[in-house]
Specification:
25% strand, extended
C-alpha cells in the first residue's frame, strides 16, 4: 500500500531572516534624516558666506564704476555747447551740477550704452551703435556715460543703453565743529566753514580750493526716456542704493 507523503519545504535560517528584514525601520529612517540635516547645515555654513561675499563684491564693483564715472565727468568739460557754457572750466561745471542735481530737468543720469568705436558727436562722445550690430568689441563697445536730463544726446544713448540706469542727488558737505555733515540746503554751494553766501553761480568767488559733497545713487525703475521727461520726479525717491562722499577741486 502506497503511503502519501506531503512535501514541506524547509527554509534556511538566512531565508527566514530575509523574509522579515525588507525596508528600513522607523528608527533607521529617523537616523538617516538626522544625518542628512547635519550634512545640509554644514554645506550652508561653508558655502553661504562665500555666496554672500561674491554678491557683495559684484555690488561693490558696480558702485565703484558709478563713482568713477561721476568723478570723471565732473573733472572735464566736453566740446561744443558745454565748453562754451563753462568757458572750459570744469570746476564751474562741477559746482553747477552739484547745486542743480535736485532740480527738475537737471537730474544727473549715469548709465552704459553701446557705442561705435570710431565715430564721435559734436560733444566728443562716441556715436550710439545700432542694436543690430552684434559683436561686442568689434562692431561696438560699451561706454560708461554721465549726462544731465537736459542733455540733447541723452535720448539717443538710452535707446541703446546696456544694463541699469541710475541718477544722482548731490549736496555739499559743510563743517559742524571739526566734522563734516551734509548740508540741509539743497541747491547751494557755500563756504564750508562759514555757511552763508551762495557761490553756485559764481565759482571764482568761492573761497576754498575744494568742494566736498555727498553723492546719493538711485536706481531708476525703467530706461525709458519718456518716463524721465513725463513721469519722473527725483523727490519721489527717498532711499538711495548707496552713497559716497566725494570732492572736486579747482
Amino acid at each position: 500500500m502506497l503511503q502519501q507523503h506531503t512535501f514541506q519545504p524547509t527554509l534556511s535560517k538566512n531565508s527566514r531572516d530575509c523574509k522579515f528584514s525588507k525596508g528600513f525601520t522607523l528608527a533607521e529612517s529617523v537616523i538617516a534624516l538626522g544625518i542628512l540635516v547635519v550634512l545640509i547645515t554644514g554645506f550652508l555654513a561653508v558655502f553661504g558666506p562665500a555666496a554672500r561675499t561674491i554678491k557683495k563684491t559684484l555690488s561693490t564693483d558696480e558702485a565703484s564704476r558709478l563713482q568713477a564715472s561721476l568723478e570723471r565727468e565732473l573733472s572735464v568739460v566736453r566740446e561744443g555747447a558745454e565748453r562754451r557754457r563753462y568757458r572750459g572750466d570744469p570746476f564751474g561745471k562741477a559746482l553747477e551740477w552739484i547745486s542743480q542735481s535736485e532740480e527738475p530737468g537737471q537730474t544727473v543720469i549715469v548709465y552704459k550704452y553701446r557705442a561705435l568705436p570710431d565715430e564721435t558727436r559734436e560733444d566728443g562722445t562716441l556715436v550710439p551703435a545700432p542694436r543690430e550690430l552684434g559683436i561686442a568689441g568689434e562692431d561696438f563697445i560699451i561706454r560708461p556715460m554721465v549726462r544731465r536730463l537736459s542733455d540733447p544726446f541723452l535720448e539717443e544713448d538710452l535707446n541703446v543703453v546696456e544694463g541699469r540706469v541710475f541718477f544722482v542727488k548731490m549736496r555739499q558737505l559743510i563743517f559742524e565743529g571739526e566734522a563734516l555733515r551734509v548740508s540741509d540746503r539743497a541747491g547751494v554751494i557755500v563756504d564750508p566753514y562759514d555757511p552763508g553766501e551762495d557761490f553756485s553761480s559764481d565759482p571764482e568767488a568761492y573761497p576754498e580750493a575744494v568742494v566736498a559733497f555727498e553723492a546719493e545713487y538711485y536706481n531708476l525703475p525703467t530706461t525709458s526716456f519718456q518716463f524721465l521727461t513725463e513721469a519722473f520726479d527725483p523727490d519721489d525717491f527717498l532711499r538711495p542704493i548707496f552713497s559716497r562722499n566725494l570732492a572736486v577741486s579747482r
